[in-house]
Amino acid sequence: MASPPPKSPEQTEKSKKYDRQLRLWGDHGQVLLENAKVCLINATTLGAEILKSLILPGIGAFTIVDGETVTEEDTGSNFFLDYDSVGMPRARVATQSLLELNADVHGDYIDETPEHILSHTQNFFNKFNIVIGTSLPEKVLIPLSKHLWEANVPLIVCRSIGFLGYIRLQVKEHTVIEAHPDNENPDLRLINPWPELKVHLEKTDISKLDNKERSHVPALTILYYFIKKFQEHNNGALPRSRSDKDEIRKMIQESAVCDENGVQILEDNFQEAIHLVNIGINPQIIPTQLKKILEDDCCTHLTQDSSPFWIMCAGLRELVQAEESLPVRGTLPDMASDSGSYIALQQIYQKKALSQSEFVYRRVCQIVTDLGIQQDIISEQEVKLFCKHCSELYVMRGSCIADEYEKNSPDLSVYLEDPDSLMFSYVVLRGLERFLGEYNVYPGHLDDQVEPDVLKLKIITGKLLSEWRCTQILRDERVHEVCRYGGAELHSVSAVLGGIAAHEAIKLLTHQYKPLNNTFIYDAITSSSATYTL
Amino acid sequence: MQLDRTPCVLGEEARSLVKEAKILVVGAGGIGCEVLKNLALSGFQDIEIIDLDTIDVSNLNRQFLFRKEHVGKPKAVVARETILGYNPDIKVKAYHDSITSQEYGVNFFKQFSLVLNALDNRAARNHVNRMCLAADIPLIESGTAGYSGQVELIKKGVTQCYECQPKPTQKTYPGCTIRNTPSEPVHCIVWAKHLFNQLFGEEDPDQDVSPDSEDPEAKTEDGHSMTDTGNVKRISTRQWAQEIDYNPTQLFNKFFFEDIEYLLKMENLWKSRKPPVPIKWEEATTDGEKTEVKDDDNIKNTDMKVWSINKCAQVFAKTVDVLKKELSGRNFLVWDKDDQPGMDFVTACANIRSHIFSIQMQSKFSTKSIAGSIIPAIATANAIVAGLVVLHAFRALQEQYERCSAVYLRRKSKFSKFVLAADNELQKANPVCYVCSPKPFVNVFVNTNTMTVKEFENEILKKQLNMIAPDVVLDGKFVVVISSEEGETQANDNKTLVEMSVVEGTVLKCDDFLQNYELQIAVNHYEAKEKDDPLFKVAVNPEDLKAKEDIKNGGANGKKEENHDEDSDDEPTIVENPPEDPQEGSSSKRRKLNPPEDSDDDLIVLDEIIE
Ligand SMILES: [Zn+2]
């Protein structure tokens, strides 16, 4: 639509400020972002960098939970803690300077440790759309992870130590309507067209057209005509293989006629038809991923607590059962043709898409009534968007971090067969956490303790690997290397990780694009990264 | 007490190098702000920053050193102040200036240990590339576009240079080009979009469509600008349009006749250019065949065809009317390429302007693809890339160049689904690169009968080959064709190449003193035959041009569609979401999956980077 509803001056200013990002996630994504409440636990360098990249694009509000005071070391690598603030509560100083980044964002802080909050006001974290934790010791991480898993609040855990980085997403269930696939083919339905489309396409007999008429036929009609021709030559068989497609291309090519000067020409629209052969002939099938979603328990057994996503899935499911196909996307690629023919064709697609989304919407309304929940929970507009993107629907079911640590020992041996695997960095990081839990300090933090710490860390990682029934061992130099870090953050590594973690948070908050599933490891020495599902 | 911010993690050698290093950051935009912060927090003590731009509202969603109250101020200056506010102990020098200015010669570059590019346009990138090659200073080049980005090292004799591989065409344009001297369809399209906003959209002073009398090129010899000679700023375009109730004829005559007449008065602009031809409503609507624009005809039919001037005028009148009605009761309209009246309006206006300036007119389809491409920019991608830049800087300072292979953020490719992935090795220089090879050489294809020396200098040497102040002599004949000395070869300016004995087979020796760059140019006589043919071409190897043309002729939908087709060609049936679609595989896989050298993925790699 060209014309938005009248906007207040404030919104105008906002849309200007956010112009470059609205092009990525749209107004509806921005609305979700602006309504989001984000909690950061520990305003470390990494924590502040993550929050910075969320405040700039305009989340609604943030809360920093941090029981520490600012140290001199902090001010050396954290842009949001200045030297004069040494000794003051880190939560307060960071909140104040981060708030300067964007006047539209609200922020507050709690000058308490996360342990304290967990033991006193357990439900404190439930009000957030996302909780992000940095430098969490195991004794906080495990209960927090369990609590947020139960409360169904997404948790992102991040670590930045020396040249190593780690990001772990914990989401019980996350649903995506707009996955933004890199490639998207037009949805044409030339194989098995619905009756109205079929009647329309069959009105044109390409062989009976004069030159002027030929140049006005949309490529779709041409392609459909030659698919039919192909079927006539092949006992009704549909074109499937590459050579079938080549045959159709050849048929189109050979239909070229001579112009008034006797020169053989193939008009633009016929060339377009040749281009469309590849993508236009595929039968429309329901992607397996979507089939799974439509058969999912959440879709077949709705409750009053079902999310709009699943209610819309249930509506879609009824349409698919009734019509044995997905809703038509309703948009056509641009084509050379005369206006009348193109518009007629376009209207047939739009009408179909509209009637299908109306069907789904009616079903959704019925379901909502039957469930006895609020009528306006899902708008017709949302159903339209949902139907348009139905082939990209995506459901991610994650795993609980506490389980990864306590119950299911991860099966890492497959990865560890490659001596360069970044999974070794995961082992190191888990070792560091355990070290921290046992000794309350990072290995190598004190200059005179480096050698003894190396030994201790070797023992810890050895134990971890045997707990996980892995036969591989950690190379000595890896252990030496992390002990050299002494637990210190390198600002640029935290900058990289902060951007990546913030971006995952944006994906979760806007429900667009597929999030990382679920563990991300970054090695800044080799500039490489990897994602593992743990 | 001064805090030692050099991280212990770096090790002794690196720490002392960081403390002594002098760094030049070129650009204080999205990446530049982040890079400055990272440098200041990594122990760097001596930083210089240069940027020509001033701060705009649309920068604030990512350029975090700037606040609302800084809008309109120079980026470099404000960035410096904010950084010093955080850490007053370091030395930061700011230049509010263009890096291509003559003041920043090879000796300027030589004083730095490293140059970090954080630029938004190719011309400046090319220039800094040459300066760093000439000064033999390592350069770290970076860019982002939407979610993607990349970082690479450029070091003479070690890696490829920025210009080793031909890049797709540029996308940002100076204001005077848009307002005064358009030379490509895209300039007219940008202008038409600005016109839409002036009339119906949100008014933006940066999007003025009237002639720019402050154009440095338009200044007369005695340095006077045209401001005092007319074009009194009456009222805003919007106000005036409302006063005449969006009368299409009056609007048409103002933008396509009166403003053009005014431009013609800036005589300096047309000394080496073809002057525009103003057109009046009456003339436009009698020109060519009569095309009725019926009410129920929403123009879609002709998307692929180029409209006649008459049709453009009719569409202009009709869409002005439609948009005027849409506007009533609202504050403004938002232009959207997918919205028909807005898109039709832009197509019509861009084409009328193209006609006036003798520029190739475009179909609505092509106009839409050009008009719709704005490069999105977000904080997260800039933060990631800037972090990578400074990590590369640590390695480059220690001369560990082999560890500085290019790193990509969310590279779009069928091979790589990693968030971050590095090349296995440094990209080798192209042995026939016309910039960094030992004897730079290039072929140009121009119409030697019609192209003037001045056009050759502006269009070929400056715009295509990115020289700043070239000297050109006929090889072996010591005839000076173009001199960088003011006025020395002015007499040649309006002569055609043939008149200067520059013909098919001529070799020209070009020398850009500022860039310390010598280039031999082989001249090929060439005449554009088809309407779509470019007016001139530049290539090291004429064979390359053939390959490009084949792509171009591939289909009306252009390259993107073409690749798209080819992708699915190998898998003839159904494209479906893979069951598990992580953004990355495991690290071991990555090594095997690194794209082969001849992969055309490099075509996609961002260059059109806004920040
Ligand atoms: Zn080169």
UniProtKB/TrEMBL annotation, chain A:
GO CC annotations on file: cytoplasm
One annotated GO molecular function: NEDD8 activating enzyme activity
Domain THIF-type NAD/FAD binding fold: 18-528
Pathway(s) of this molecule: Protein modification; protein neddylation
InterPro entries registered for this protein in UniProt: APP-BP1, ThiF/MoeB/HesA, ThiF_NAD_FAD-bd, Ubiquitin-activating_enz
CDD domains according to UniProt: APPBP1_RUB
Keyword check for Thylakoid: no
Protein keywords: Ubl conjugation pathway
UniProt entry tagged with the keyword Acyltransferase: no
Gene Ontology process terms (BP): protein neddylation
Protein family (similarity comment): Belongs to the ubiquitin-activating E1 family. ULA1 subfamily.
Descriptive protein name: NEDD8-activating enzyme E1 regulatory subunit
Phylogenetic classification of the source organism: Eukaryota, Metazoa, Ecdysozoa, Arthropoda, Hexapoda
Automatic annotation (TrEMBL), chain B:
Region feature Disordered, mapped onto this chain: 202-231, 547-611
THIF-type NAD/FAD binding fold domain ranges (all copies): 10-403
Binding positions for ATP per the UniProt entry: 27-32, 51, 59-62, 75, 98-99, 120-125
One Pfam family per UniProt: UAE_UbL
Biased composition (Acidic residues): 202-215, 564-583, 597-611
Subcellular location: Nucleus
SUPFAM superfamilies linked to this entry: Activating enzymes of the ubiquitin-like proteins
Binding site for Zn(2+): C161, C164, C433, C436
Domain Ubiquitin-activating enzyme SCCH stretches: 290-368
Alphabetically ordered keywords of this record: ATP-binding, Metal-binding, Nucleotide-binding, Nucleus, Transferase, Ubl conjugation pathway, Zinc
Pathway: Protein modification; protein sumoylation
Domain Ubiquitin/SUMO-activating enzyme ubiquitin-like: 444-529
Domain of life: Eukaryota
Catalytic residues (positions): C176
UniProt KW Protein biosynthesis keyword: no
Skewed-composition ranges (Basic and acidic residues): 216-225, 547-563
An annotated GO cellular component: SUMO activating enzyme complex
Coiled-coil annotated spans: none
GO biological process terms, semicolon-separated: protein sumoylation
GO MF: ATP binding; metal ion binding; SUMO activating enzyme activity; transferase activity
UniProt subunit comment: Heterodimer.
Family label: Belongs to the ubiquitin-activating E1 family.
Protein name stated in the entry: SUMO-activating enzyme subunit
